[in-house]
């Protein structure tokens, strides 16, 4: 390992490089993801620089005083296996202090994450397939309403299904360029909300947080029907937590098939959240 190796937070332009690397690794980030991610913790994205050149990235984003999420852990292929990634990991995780840290890691790295104190909570499974085919397995009815800003009601609804408050993130996520957000009310009561966004390849739906499978199905239908007909031949992806069997059933009813999976892990006991209400994970990079 060279001694001319420096570790520091990334600038916003360098975060765009990290997003490009994630795309190269097959994570298929959204087109507006970087700006949304930076809204949570501007000092949460780190890089390792060898002779001034970026060769490794990681994010450890602090949501609040208790919870952080780790992602974008990538070392350039030319520099793997030389200890650069480990040094960056150690420096970046120190940014989280004594917070509980979560991550979504590829299955083959699960043992390495366990060595750093992470415990498996459950698997997340990415389903994918053509939008046109997915719509055939969904209801036609339009029951939802546009969600153009973060309301206190939506924030409280989301909080039950996420380990920390994330108002800054959601304020950007709901309104980012290309994102479409919908909410579903029954008898003037919020029963679910969701977002669809354009990605490097196709579209992703996430989050979808709903009281039950019927609400989730109606929301997913509304989100997909918000996509122009001209792109219905493109793929849509839905990431679902394996313990929520109803979410997996919804994906299969849409004709989607598993294409990728991650291990959701935490540095301590898994936080008590309503996994049975999560029908679409927001993002593997930020939870």
From TrEMBL:
It holds the Pfam family Acetyltransf_1. Residues 5-138 form the N-acetyltransferase domain. GO terms for molecular function: acyltransferase activity, transferring groups other than amino-acyl groups. This is N-acetyltransferase domain-containing protein. It comes from Falsiruegeria mediterranea M17.
């Amino acid at each position: 390992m060279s001694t001319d190796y420096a570790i520091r937070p990334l600038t916003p332009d360098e975060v765009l490089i990290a997003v490009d690397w994630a795309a190269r690794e097959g994570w298929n980030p959204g087109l507006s993801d970087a700006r949304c991610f930076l809204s949570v913790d501007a000092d949460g994205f780190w890089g390792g620089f060898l002779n001034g050149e970026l060769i490794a990235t990681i994010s450890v984003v602090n949501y609040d005083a208790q919870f952080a999420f780790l992602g974008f852990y990538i070392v350039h292929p030319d520099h793997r296996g030389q200890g650069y990634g480990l040094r960056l990991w150690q420096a970046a995780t120190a940014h989280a202090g004594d917070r509980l840290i979560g991550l979504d890691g590829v299955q083959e790295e699960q043992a390495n994450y366990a060595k750093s104190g992470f415990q498996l909570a459950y698997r997340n499974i990415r389903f994918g397939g053509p939008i046109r085919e997915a719509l055939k397995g969904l209801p036609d009815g339009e029951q939802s309403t546009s969600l153009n800003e973060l309301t206190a009601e939506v924030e409280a609804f989301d909080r039950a299904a996420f380990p920390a408050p994330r108002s800054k993130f959601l304020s950007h996520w709901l309104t980012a360029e290309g994102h479409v957000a919908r909410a579903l009310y029954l008898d003037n009561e919020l029963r679910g909300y969701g977002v669809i966004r354009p990605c490097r390849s196709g579209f992703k739906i996430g989050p979808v947080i709903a009281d039950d499978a019927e609400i989730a199905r109606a929301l997913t239908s509304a989100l997909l029907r918000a996509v122009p007909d001209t792109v219905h031949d493109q793929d849509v992806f839905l990431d679902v937590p394996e313990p929520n069997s109803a979410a997996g059933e919804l994906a299969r009813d849409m004709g989607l098939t598993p294409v990728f999976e991650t291990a959701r892990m935490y540095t301590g006991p898994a936080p008590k959240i309503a996994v049975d209400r999560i029908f679409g994970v927001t993002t593997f990079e930020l939870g």
